[in-house]
Amino acid sequence: MARSSGEVSGAPVCVSLATHDLDAAEDFYGEVLGWRFRRSRLGEEFRVACADEVPVAGIAAVVPRLGVPMAWTPYFAVADADVTAARIRERGATTAVGPLAFATGRAALAADRDGAVFGFWEGEVGPERWPDRDGPVRVELKARDAFAAAVFYGEVLDWAEERPGALDVAYEQDHVVVRHHHRTVARIDAGAVESAPDPRARPRWEVHFAVPDLDAAADRAVRAGGAVAGPVGTCLADRRVTLNDWSGTPFTVTEAVERP
C-alpha cells in the first residue's frame, strides 16, 4: 500500500538519473548492473530500473526539456514541497527546478550552500521504495563540513524532529550517519573542496550501487563505453570505485568486504 511522503519525511526515497537518451541508459546500466526496465507512472520520459524484479532507481530523459545536467541524484521525501523550497532559499541555498507536478506527486531539484545537488519529493511513496527495505543503493554526501551540512539538511528535511518515525542523526568520529528505524539511509563525510579541479573532490551527493564483484562491474562498464574514474578505495565495510557511464556521468559501485 502506498503512503504519503509525509509519513517518511526526510528519508531518501529514490535515486534518479537525468539523461538525454533512455535507450542508451538502459543499454549501459542493463549491461553493467544487470538491470531490467519498465515504464513509470510519471510519464513517457521515465523508466524504473529493477534488480531481480525489485525497483532500485529511476531514469528520466529530462535533460533537453529542463536544461539540467546529466547526473545521478537522490530524492528525499517531504510533507510539503513548497515549504521545503522556502526553507532552502531562506538558508542561502538554491531551488533550481520546480516543484513540478507529476502523476503521483511533485518533485524539485535544489543545491545546498556548497553546490551539492539533491531532489525532494512530495506525494505517493510505494512499498517498494526506500527507506523500509534493505537494497543495493546508498547515498553519501561529500561535504566541506559534515556538521554544518547536517544542520542544513536537518533544518530543511526535518531530521531528528521530536515526532514518531523521525530520522535519527548521529555524529560518529568525522562523519554523520542518518538512520531510519536503525537502518542507515544516508551518510555525510567531511573534506570536500569547493574549488577542487577534480569534480570527485567537490561537494556532491554520491549514489552507490552494491555489486557482487567490483572488478567485473568495472570491466563491464569499460566494455559498454564507460570508464573507471578513479582508484579503488577500501574501508572496513566495502571496496568502492567511481565509474563514468557512456555519457561521462559518475556513479559508484561497492563490493562488501567480509569482516573477520
Overall description:
- This protein is an alpha+beta fold.
- The chain contains five helices and 18 strands.
- It has helices spanning 22-33, 63-66, 81-90, 146-157, 214-223; strands spanning 3-4, 12-18, 36-40, 43-51, 54-60, 71-77, 94-102, 105-111, 117-125, 137-142, 168-172, 175-180, 183-189, 204-210, 227-228, 233-234, 238-244, 250-256.
- The strands form two sheets. Strands 1, 2, 3, 4, 5, 6, 7, 8 and 9 form a nine-stranded mixed β-sheet that branches. Strands 10, 11, 12, 13, 14, 15, 16, 17 and 18 form a nine-stranded mixed β-sheet that branches.
- Helix 1 (22-33) packs antiparallel against helix 5 (214-223).
- The mean pLDDT is 87.
- This is VOC family protein.
Helical residue percent band: 10-25%
The string of secondary-structure elements, in order, is EEHEEEHEHEEEEHEEEEHEEEE
- Between the first and last Cα atoms, what is the distance in angstroms? 40 Å
Count of DSSP H/I helices: 5
